[in-house]
Amino acid sequence: MMIPTVLILGAGSDMAVAIARKFAANNYAIQLAARKPELLHAQEQDLRIRHNVAVTSHGFDALDFESHVSFFQSLPVKPDVVICVFGYLGDQEKGQNDWQEASRILHTNYTGAVSILNVVAEDMAARKTGTIIGISSVAGDRGRMSNYLYGSAKAGFTAYLSGLRNRLFHAGVHVMSVQPGFVNTRMTEGLTLPPLLTAQPEEVANDIFKAASKKKNVVYSKWFWRYIMLIITSIPEFIFKKLKL
Amino acid sequence: MVKQLSNWGNYPILDCDESSFTQEEQLTQYVNTHDHIIARGNGRCYGDASLGEHSISTLRYDKVLQFDTENGIFECQAGITLDQVLAITVPRGWFLPVTPGTKFITIGGAVASDVHGKNHHAEGSFSNHVITMDVLTGVGFMSCSPENNPDLFWATCGGMGLTGIITKVQFRLKKIETAYIRQKQIKAENLDEIIRLFDEYKDYTYSMAWIDCLKKGKNFGRSILIVGEHATKEELSDKQKAAPLLLPDKLKLTIPFNLPSFVLNNFTVKAFNMLYYAKNYKKEMNGVVPYEPFFYPLDAIHHWNRGYGKQGFVQYQFVLPIDRKEGLAAIMHRISDKGWGSFLAVLKVFGKQDDLISFPMEGYTLALDFPVRKGLFPFLDELDALVLEYGGKLYLSKDARMQQEVFWKSYPNAERFANIINTYNPVGKFRSVQSDRLLITKP
Questions:
Q1: What DSSP character marks residue A3?
Q2: A36, A46, A55, A186: which to substitute to probe chain B, counting the most B Cβ within 10 Å?
Q3: What's the whole-model pTM score?
Q4: Do B63 and A43 touch (CB under 8 A)?
Q5: pLDDT tens digits, residue range B7-23?
Q6: Which tens digit of pLDDT belongs to each residue from B361-376?
Q7: What spatial distance separates the first Cα and last Cα of chain B, rounded to whole Å?
Q8: Torsion from C-alpha of A118, A122, A123, A125, nearest 10 degrees
Q9: Measured between CB atoms, which of B1, B64, B65 is closest to A189?
């Protein structure tokens, strides 16, 4: 049997490390892609030694939209699974009156993701096979004063993934969206997160792998976030706007 | 971010600013912009050795860099835990050269505490198997080994993170044929007998004893000696032979320790340990067991430390020189008279070790838990005085309360150690609550 390959976009993050290990443990060949591929050396070695799989590293900048086509074409093997992990939480307050910050949040989480996944989608649609997994966020389920720049970009990304899923279903390509809640990573290190609601990156990686093998469409991680968000999205707007969330 | 941190003993609990890193540059930048830093691995030391104003977590710095499966040489970033190392090496026929009683510590922690295992008398402590390591000191990144910058090397082994942040470690593994241990358990009626048994079975690579610290009279010091060797293929059962290097999937316990943590109180521990003794209904029992219950019986109970409640506990581990075994009886008598310590304690004989600051030295070491309560610390000060009187010392990785003069009197190289720290950590950038308390660094 052919060994499947997974491409991980934004490979340096804690979530990506956990996802790569999970797929490598299940005998996937790994393609790591990040802005500074030279920093991926240790991670590459780690995956090879732990799981005895083939690993390659590639330079990829989510904000350099022009480069996305050539990036994807340059991959030595076309991946069977593509996971879009990169994201930028940014600083909401700063972004409110600093367009640099706001645009970086929007373009990393939305435009960059759309730009690269458009390329991937064309390729998979033509080959009539493959899986695309996008890591969105529960922050996209409803805008809140504390992070609506990030949340709105993730909302856009969630809608993009659902549309892509609809389109690619007819080509035999599976698209899965992941809505993690709080995850204990370097990105959230400065935030106070409630321990019971906070997942470890390894838990999210396990959820993703399991859900992808079952061809789920939308997966919340941890699972109860689906219900938390159901409640949050059910609050009438005239009440919601008065809350300080 | 500032949060409340405590280590395995849940005492003390302190406000610490915790950060992590995944790349060397992030660490360098952090160290350049902060003071009062102490590295923290998985928080399995018991006391305040890895607590400080700024604690830098190594847990995300956990990549394996090299594994030479021919010669058993392993190189990794310091934040990887022993259980991850074992998961990689055991299926390929290699084992940790030295392991403490939990596999949930990091390699960096193993070096900083210079951990010992059941094989200390035969194979020394962890530092004896380290080939080379990298440390981000107060004067920059440095490599060290017993040959290269030996003063830094020896001050870092057992040095509780005071030379800087250990970032990479290369060490030797030990060849194994199987993932099983051929184990022998022998009951001893009392302290004299267990000491005699240790001597009789000293040719075994692994040995330790569970000792009853509360029993008085003729059964004072009754115990179970547990010795073992890595099993060869021939020694396995047919079922085990099918996959001799199989990594244990989940812990399968041979002793009844798998209680939910909330029932682990003084009363139930006593009851279960009675059963534990009773289970060894024969004087001597032999078996071939997976390595996990042999090395890590307590890891099976997640968070067993919570069993001691909110106040936490301290683990008291001391070592006495080999020719002062009367001190062992004297200290144990004080503990059994007081009745405050854990019912079961671990007794072990160390082999020779004479280095800068590591805990082991040739002699007897005893470790037991004391739940924190009113009057405990004055009582432990009394025990400290006895330990000093008999020429012993306390294990820094488990300490949360020793007075500074105990450290300076009991560690023969304390002065030299402090001088080396001054060379590599000149402005006291790396310091912990413990090092301030012991006046190794200036508070």
A1: P
A2: A46
A3: 0.93
A4: yes
A5: 999 999 999 999 999 99
A6: 999 999 999 989 999 9
A7: 22
A8: 130
A9: B1
